[in-house]
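Internal ticket - ligand job 323, UFG:
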Amino acid sequence: MKVFVTGGAGYIGSICVEELLNAGHQVTVFDNLSEGHRMAVDERAQFIEGCLSDRETILNAVAADQSEAVMHFAAFAQVGESMTDPSKYFRNNVANGINLLDAAVEAGVKKFIFSSTAATYGMPDTGPITEQEPQKPINPYGESKLMFETILKWYRELHGLEFVAFRYFNAAGCSEKLGEERRVETHLIPNVLRVALAQKKECRIFGTDYPTPDGTCIRDYIHIVDLAQAHILALESGKCGFYNLGNGEGYSVREVIETCRQVSGKPIPAIEEARRDGDPARLIAGSQKAIDELGWKPRYATLEQIVDSAWRWHSAHPNGYSS
Ligand code: UFG
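stdout (structure tokens):
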């Protein structure tokens, strides 16, 4: 298939592009390079530098491309930042996304695949979370993604645009060639591995008084290549709807740091700090729907495998894509 990918120069988008191309699809990447990297765009893909806020540009780009499907990864995704700058999140993740949706409808695109998030669930008190769990986001990031999910339902009903929205849990790990490099890194695993690379003195644990066995937040980590595979299955299936993507296992911040120590063989000092605003205590996925309906089979489901792939990429690229 021909697929138009927004945010295809970013961490998740670039690895999905690589997997799409490996599976024999044709890809056009549309990215403004505000967060992504030109070097992360597979050379087999066509690249358009552009911004979703520019409605005419995106309408023309999608119309000219004649893709059958759109994958939409271009969004801001930092929970903490969304608490201090909500406007940035609603503008880009909702308003700019509507420009893309309209472009897809006008161009007669058949399928829209959207990166949603576990942050739409807010503070669930049970786990694993299924897709039926009430969605009550506790930060503007999660709210912006939930708003877009709602818009997708209306565009399907009113314009017939079929969609799959994946609610990602914590994407982590790297492919052989492509990795996780952001201009401002807030995520746990890359920050902990920077200490192993001696680029930082210590890592930080945000909150030790959560109602979890060791007091730190629990997350469900999913390998980026497994996540990318789910997108390819969605593209090739006739399914429409919402799917969680996670492994159904939760790991605390302390457990993640310990795994990074074991994988890297480095001591990795950690300091304990106050809670970060907007963090739920525990997010664990129930992903049976993706397994049953899409035939999704995660291949790198253990935290060791996930951290190991991240460590291999970060140690081979200590300065990211400029290494
Ligand atoms: N954390 C630390 N120290 C750090 C960085 C993070 O203790 O240096 C903690 C956070 O407070 C949180 C956990 O590690 O408890 C994971 O934090 P991340 O920033 O790595 O990831 P988040 O869980 O905040 O968010 C990620 C994605 C979201 C997605 C969410 C779903 O960025 O897009 O997972 O679980 F919604």
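Auto-summary: The longest strand covers residues 111-117. The mean pLDDT is 96.
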